[in-house]
Structures are given as C-alpha cells and as structure tokens.
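About this split. The held-out portion is used to measure sequence recovery: a designer receives only the structure tokens and must propose an amino acid at every position. Recovery is the fraction of positions where the proposal matches the reference. Here is one held-out target exactly as it appears in the evaluation file.
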C-alpha cells in the first residue's frame, strides 16, 4: 500500500516548499495587489457579459399558410379634410375593402396642427327625424325605416338608410352622384355642409387593418366616392385643388407587434407635394419575423424595407398615397439567450490561471533582476 502512495506522491505536479525557505519581497506584494485587482476587473467584466442577453438570428423559408397581416398606421394629411379622406385595401387574391371604417379613428386638425375634433370613422351621425321612406312617404310611428337608394338598388328589398349607403350604392353601379343635396339622407345629415365646414383643415387618420398575408396594397384616397365616371360632385368642384394636395407625414407604420430592436423605416417620414398632383407610392417588402425573449415569450411580427416613387397625374395617376406590399419568402427568427454557464466557468478559470501565471513571471523577473544587481554591487565593493 505504501508503494502505491509513493507512486501517487511522485506524480504530484505541485511540490510544496517549506515555509522556512519563503522569501517575501516588497515587489512581490505590489505584483500580488495588482494581479488581484486585474483578476477582479476581468471577473466582473466576464460576469456582466454572462448576465447580458445575446440575440441570435436565424433565416428559414416561410412555410406558413392562411395567416393574416396586421397593419398599424398613423398618417397626417395637413391639406385633406377628414370627410374627403378614405382608406381602401385590396390584394392579389381579388379581395377588396373600400372606404374602410372599422378600427379607424380620424382627427380633424387646423392649419397649425391642433386637434379640432376626434371621432371614430362611421360613428356619430345625427339622429334622423321622420326620414323619407322608400315608398315615398315619411316614416310612421310603427314603421321600420327603409330608405331609397334612388335607382341604385341591386334588389327590390335593398335599403339605403344613410348618405354613405346611397353613395356606396352609386359607387357599385359606377354612377356619378351629381347633387347630394337632392338626396334625402344626405340633406338631413347635412353632409355637404359638413364638408364645407372643414375648409382649411387637415386630417390625422390612425388605426389598424387585418389583411390576407399575400401581396397587395392599401391606400389613402381623396374624394371618397365623389369621383365617379371621372366626375366630381358639383357642390364640391371648388375643393378640387385643396383635396388633391396629398402632402403627408407618416407618424407610424408597422406590420405587426413591436419587439426589442424593431426599426420601422417609415416612422416620422414627411413628404411635401410639389406643383404637380399625382400618386405617391411606397413599395414595401415585408419580412416575417419571430422574436423569442429570454423568458420564452414569442412575438410574431414583421420587419420591412421600402422604396418610394411619385407618379404625376399627367401620367394618368389617381391622387392618393399608396402602399404596395409584398411578402418575403424568407422568415427571420430572433432568439434571446445567455452565454452558457460552462463557457462562463471556463473563462473565469482562464482569467485566474492566466493572471497568476503572468504575475508569477513578472515577479520572478523583478526578483532575479534585483538579485543580479545586488551581486554585481557586492562584487564591485570587494574589488
């Protein structure tokens, strides 16, 4: 058994020196203090790096199908009245949404940008007292209201109970609505007068859209359905120059939820129209993105890049601001993670061992240098 212990003792890579042979020096104390300070600094740096979350990215082919795209927007038009501004959307599948009002908020603003009125689009129409019925008489006490579409009905039982529904019926027929004051619904709602009351005002429109996850476009058009068969509403002819000025500022445009590090390139972009009218186009490339944070919470969103182009009305462009978007086939996955603990432990061991080794070399160099100088001085003294 002693032979085994002796064999193990001979393999000791750390031979011990008797304390009687220790020689502590001033330079050794200074080197020790400096080395401990360096080790402490490097350890704190490594610890902070270990606690810091690192975001790793991964590119994959997007194989998802049947999903929807959530679009958030906040756009200000300083020279377009809210009553003459509409939002339309369509995609390559053929689905169309004209004059969208759901989840849309409009703010009337004056020439200085101050808010005049805030109203959810499509809400707040005045109460109608004894409106004109489809059969020509006034609404009775026990009757259900069914307004006339003034010849634009698609079926015998179709009703148009508001000015907006009459305009929509005419739009579907492709007819021009030449005088809205002759329409009972518009006359009672004071629609034309409301448009005239907004003279000199602008509009801030904000809200969200839920569209199919396919290529398409959404656009802010001026004039709503006043433009029919290349004709403007007679009572609004004087407003043409104003509502064709599509100068705008994009306060916010995003395709999905926000996640850390997301940059929307169109946020805060402002464009001022020159002397010619036309269509301002944004061509957007949407990149599906998944973000997984350190706690495992997953956010499904999108990033995008964009290019811009202005097309003059002389080239046949319809005045408006158009956003043409296309979906990238590549999906990006971001994942937050820490440096592995074993990596951290290895780095700490390397710091301690490395600093001790370098400190030992420095201390030995100083010690043997001092001894050499001392011996030379003693030899010179005896000579």
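Reference sequence for scoring:
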């Amino acid at each position: 058994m002693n032979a085994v212990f002796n064999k193990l003792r001979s393999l000791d890579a750390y031979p011990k020196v008797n304390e009687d042979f220790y020689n502590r020096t001033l330079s050794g104390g200074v080197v020790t203090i400096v080395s401990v300070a360096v080790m402490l600094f490097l350890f704190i740096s490594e610890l902070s790096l270990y606690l810091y979350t690192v975001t790793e990215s991964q590119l994959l082919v997007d194989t998802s199908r049947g999903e929807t795209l959530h679009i958030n927007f906040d756009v200000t038009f300083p020279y377009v009245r809210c009553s003459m501004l509409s939002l339309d959307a369509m995609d390559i599948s053929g689905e169309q949404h004209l004059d969208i009002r759901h989840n849309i908020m409009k703010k009337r603003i004056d020439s200085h940008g101050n808010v005049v009125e805030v109203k959810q689009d499509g809400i707040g129409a005045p109460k109608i007292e004894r409106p004109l019925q489809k059969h020509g008489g006034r609404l009775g006490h026990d009757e259900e209201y069914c307004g006339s579409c003034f010849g634009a009905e698609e079926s015998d039982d179709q009703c148009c109970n508001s000015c907006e529904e009459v305009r929509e019926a005419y739009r579907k027929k492709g007819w021009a609505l030449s005088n809205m004051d002759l329409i009972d619904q518009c006359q009672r709602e004071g629609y034309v007068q409301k448009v005239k009351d907004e003279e000199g005002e602008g509009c801030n429109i904000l809200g969200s859209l839920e569209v199919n996850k396919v290529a398409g476009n959404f656009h802010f058009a001026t004039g709503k359905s006043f433009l029919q068969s290349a004709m403007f509403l007679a009572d609004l002819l004087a407003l043409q120059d104003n509502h064709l000025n599509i100068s705008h500022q994009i306060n916010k445009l995003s395709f999905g939820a926000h996640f850390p590090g997301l940059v929307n390139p169109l946020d805060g972009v402002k464009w001022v129209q020159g002397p010619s009218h036309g269509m301002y186009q944004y061509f957007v490339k949407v990149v599906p993105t998944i973000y997984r944070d350190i706690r495992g919470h997953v956010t499904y969103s999108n990033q995008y890049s964009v290019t811009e182009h202005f097309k003059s009305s002389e080239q046949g462009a319809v005045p408006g601001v158009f956003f043409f978007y296309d979906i990238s086939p590549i999906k990006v996955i971001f994942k937050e993670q820490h440096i592995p603990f074993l990596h951290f432990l290895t780095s700490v061991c390397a710091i301690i061992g490395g600093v001790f080794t370098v400190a030992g070399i420095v201390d030995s160099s100083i010690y043997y240098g001092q001894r050499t100088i001392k011996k030379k001085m003693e030899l010179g003294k005896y000579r």
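Annotator remark: The chain has seven helices and 14 strands.
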